[in-house]
TrEMBL record:
Coiled coil: none
Entry GO MF terms: manganese ion binding; metalloaminopeptidase activity
CDD domains per record: Peptidase_M17
Start and end residues of each Cytosol aminopeptidase domain: 310-317
Similarity comment: family membership: Belongs to the peptidase M17 family.
Identification of the protein by name: Cytochrome c oxidase subunit II
Domain of life according to the entry: Bacteria
Length: 463
């Protein structure tokens, strides 16, 4: 399905959104054949149900979409999207029943419900399109859907076609569409005195494609926003090799990069009045004679030394060098996004995007924005007493504290050590994967956090 709304000249069918307790009242206003058809079908307005309404010759003249109860809707991000599979292919317009305050969210859910990943297998079937409901900004909704489509495609693409080289190509293509500038530091240049990113090099040096730092800039004026996305295109765990069952989804270990790329696309498409910088350390954590080892002490761009106690805790290493680099320009807001820890999934599950920040204004703006953006986030603490857990004694920092407690918090504390100049810093420890299909959210790669961030930016950066 194209990520766009239908035009009214497509002769859309009227779609009546029916709450379960409002069905009787709606039927009272219909003619006898319509009442008989609905009653005979057993349609009761349940969430996720749909019913086509036939005309005298049997061709559809409209449709009903069950909207359930408020309790049922609270369990889903995009409740109306659950009814779409029950509709006949074609174009629709909302005729009645959709609360105005829900129109933008449900319109976005409709666009996202058409997503399918078709790079390797042709996706057939006719589309179910929607005329933009009244009272929404249709182009903004389309931009949000386009950004999530890009993010999902990037995450869903296997590492055979989405290694560091391909990720760089995606950023260059994005920059070309919006007139942004891209610089890349790769391979042994990461170790030069002028461009020094030793931890990015160490993590990626064992792979077939050389590690690199991708640096995209857009915008000439306004506050500065720096996005840093973890671009580990595949993670074997390194010498601390993952078991097979844990390696199967590691194509998504660049989900942080994918989310920041999607967010960057939305910012540029909306032409927000700010200066945008996107930093992506793109590597593969592979196994070879060049792999970094447990027990190694790594230098970092910031000058802090890091003891390696687990080569499978590599994402924070590449992020640290990139964060230190971004921090040198003292941005007004710097955000890192990463599929960083299993501990975050244990804490909040796959549906919430946990984040860390000391910036109270940004935390408050996110809390305000997330419900309306249908993009739930959850604040986690930079808990100072745990700082000792990331200080091993032999080096400045430990990349993988023993014991397993507070793994997401200690990872966030580790990253915070590489910031300090930015006016505000926030870290998102996301999953970026939908484990099972939900309305508007196909199984697979997922955007988590960018819509809430996007809606919070005007308040935080005074845009």
């Amino acid at each position: 399905m194209p990520v766009s709304f239908a035009t009214p000249d497509t002769s859309p069918l009227p779609l009546y959104v029916i709450e379960a307790d409002a069905l009787a009242a709606w039927l009272d206003g219909q003619d006898a054949p319509t009442r008989a058809w609905v009653e005979a079908s057993g349609f009761a307005g349940g969430l996720g149900t749909a019913l086509m309404l036939p005309g005298p010759d049997g061709t559809p003249v409209g449709a009903l979409a069950g909207y359930g109860s408020s309790d049922a809707r609270a369990r889903h991000r995009f409740p109306l999207a659950g009814a779409i599979p029950g509709l006949a292919p074609g174009s629709y317009r909302i005729a009645s029943g959709l609360p105005p305050e829900c129109a933008a969210t449900e319109a976005l859910g409709w666009l996202l419900s058409g997503y399918s990943y078709g790079r390797y297998r042709e996706q057939g079937g006719r589309e179910r399109t929607l005329v933009a409901p009244e009272g929404i900004d249709p182009r903004r909704i389309e931009i949000l859907a386009e950004a999530e489509t890009l993010t999902r495609d990037l995450v869903n693409t296997p590492a055979s076609d989405m290694g560091p080289e391909a990720l760089e190509a995606e950023v260059r293509a994005l920059a070309g569409r919006f007139g942004a500038e891209v610089a890349v530091i790769a391979g042994e240049d990461l170790l030069s005195e002028k461009t020094y990113f030793p931890m990015i090099h160490a993590v990626g040096r064992a792979a077939g494609q050389v590690p690199r730092l991708i640096d995209m800039r857009w915008g000439r004026s306004g506050p500065m926003l720096t996005l840093v996305g973890k671009g580990v295109c595949f993670d074997t765990g390194g010498l601390n090799l993952k078991p097979g069952g844990s390696m199967g989804l590691m194509k998504k270990d660049m989900g942080g990069a994918a989310n920041t790329i999607g967010l960057a696309q939305a910012i540029m498409a909306l032409d927000l009045p700010l200066r945008l910088r996107l930093l992506i350390p793109a590597v593969e954590n592979s196994v070879s004679g060049h792999s970094f080892r447990p027990g190694d002490i790594l230098q970092s761009r910031k000058g802090l030394t890091v003891e390696i106690n687990n080569t499978d805790a590599e994402g924070r290493l590449v992020l640290a060098d990139a964060l230190a680099y971004g921090d040198e320009e003292t941005p007004d807001l710097m955000i890192s996004m990463a599929t960083l820890t299993g501990a975050a999934r244990v804490a909040v599950g796959p549906d919430l995007a946990p984040f860390y920040t000391d910036a109270e204004d940004f935390a408050g703006a996110l809390a305000d924005a997330a419900p309306g953006a249908a993009d739930p986030v959850w604040r986690m603490p930079f808990h100072a007493p745990y700082e000792a857990m990331i200080e091993p004694g032999i080096a400045d920092l430990d990349n993988a504290p023993s014991g397993g407690f507070a793994g997401s918090i200690t990872a966030a504390l580790f990253l915070r050590r590489f910031t300090g100049q930015a006016a505000r810093y926030a870290h998102f420890d996301i999953y970026s994967w939908q484990p099972k299909p939900e309305p508007g959210r196909a199984k697979g790669g997922l955007m988590q956090g960018p819509r809430a961030i996007l809606d919070a930016l005007p308040q935080v950066l005074d845009l």
